[in-house]
Amino acid sequence: MIVNAQVRPYRCQTRTAGIRQRVAANHSSEMSMPLRRAVIVVLCVAFFLVVAGGQFMHWRIMKGAQVVEQLQSVSSDLAAENMSLLAQRARLMSPEHIEAVAAVRLDLHEPGKGQVHRL
Prior knowledge:
By secondary structure, the chain is mainly alpha-helical. The protein has two helices and no strands. The protein has a domain at about 35-105.
């Protein structure tokens, strides 16, 4: 045991039902003029920010839609050009065209039936 130590038993802090602390209630439902002004200003600023944010998002969405529309038109133009290029390649690779170009540019012809050719 410690000398000169004051030890007392623990007592929980309970209050009886009849003794309660009550907060003084202000039954006035009106706000003061400066507080009312501050609340109105805050509400107006919040409303403005919400409307401005909505307009900004609308602008971004419309700009994105315009970009998508432009890309779709470019894509359709490229698809049409690709189809015409494929048709032109098929025409240029045909045996008839190759023989015609060889005859005109290089003066090459297929040998006739009676001609002799040696390899």
